[in-house]
Automatic annotation (TrEMBL):
It comes from the Bacteria. The lineage of its organism: Bacteria, Bacillati, Actinomycetota, Actinomycetes, Streptosporangiales. GO terms for molecular function: DNA binding. Pfam families: DUF5753, HTH_31. SUPFAM superfamilies: lambda repressor-like DNA-binding domains. It comes from Actinomadura syzygii. Gene3D superfamilies: lambda repressor-like DNA-binding domains. This is Helix-turn-helix domain-containing protein. Residues 91-264 form the DUF5753 domain.
Length: 270
């Protein structure tokens, strides 16, 4: 991913990348040596110093301790993570989806955007604060194209809450076409769609939607927040989302029974 030149005067993460390179060179240490110090491979150091990935807190603590920096990088990483106006330069969710080799989705009340039909997406956007409805729908469809129309599309696993099947969005015809689309996507060899049925009761999934992406052989997450979602890169935080997704998956119906649930829901919209 092209990131552009680092700008330590404007970005805390860029400052960390530049300062890490400077401190390493002051000590006459190679990138490979620093990688061994933090227990990772050489490419990790190169990507941190180029601004491609952020320095992780546990690595910052090791560097501070071994280089006697009195928690310099530990503090910088904490400050960077707290600055909402200085997010690490991951790019947006759509960019990461377009590069992902694996996509895992959980949705509480709606069909996920990557699986929505144009009419369903339009109905969803029409009840929000979207200024240009057509543009919003086109953007959503472009996300889908970038994921599903690739020469080597990612493995996609989707878990839907039963609410997404029973909550009407638009007309019955729109819902029928949407559920039919889910079944068609589920026929693809790299896509599986499962349903969490009403009988499961309250569960950890009600904390909100989440999306897990495998990009460049590492996992990142996207989760809802009160004022908009955000990408999560810290390994410990991502692991917590993975655990939540796994717990949801443990109680979801298998693919076959889930397909039957979707078919039954379709009948209610005929």
């Amino acid at each position: 991913m092209s990131q552009g030149p680092l700008d330590p005067d404007r970005s805390m993460w860029d400052l960390i990348a530049v300062e890490l390179r400077r401190q390493r060179r002051l000590r006459g240490m190679s990138g490979a040596a620093l990688a061994r110090l933090v227990g990772r491979d050489r490419s990790i150091v190169s990507r941190i110093e180029s601004g491609t990935i952020p320095l992780q807190l546990d690595h910052a603590e090791i560097i501070d301790r071994e280089w006697s920096l009195e928690r310099l990088f530990t503090r910088l990483v904490k400050f960077a993570k707290e600055r909402k106006d200085d997010e690490w330069r991951l790019g947006d969710l759509a960019e990461q989806e377009a590069r992902a080799t694996r996509v895992r989705l959980w949705e509480v009340g709606l069909v996920p955007g990557l699986l929505q039909t144009p009419d369903y997406a339009r109905a969803v956007f029409s009840v929000g604060l979207v200024r240009d409805l057509s543009e919003a729908v086109e953007t959503r469809l472009a996300r889908q194209t970038a994921v599903f129309d690739r020469e080597q599309p990612p493995e996609v696993s989707v878990i839907l809450n039963w609410v997404a099947l029973e909550q009407p969005v638009g007309s019955p015809a729109i819902m029928y076409a949407q559920l039919k689309h889910l079944l068609e996507l589920g026929d693809l060899p790299h896509v599986n769609v499962r349903v969490l049925e009403k009988s499961t009761g309250v569960h950890v999934g009600y904390d909100g939607m989440l999306e897990l992406l495998t990009v460049d052989s590492r996992d990142i997450a996207y989760a809802d927040a009160p004022h908009g979602g955000g990408l999560v890169t810290d390994p410990k935080e991502v692991e917590a989302f993975q655990v939540r997704y796994d717990r949801i998956g443990h109680i979801a119906a298998p693919v076959g029974p889930s397909r039957a649930v979707i078919q039954r829901a379709m009948e209610t919209y005929q």
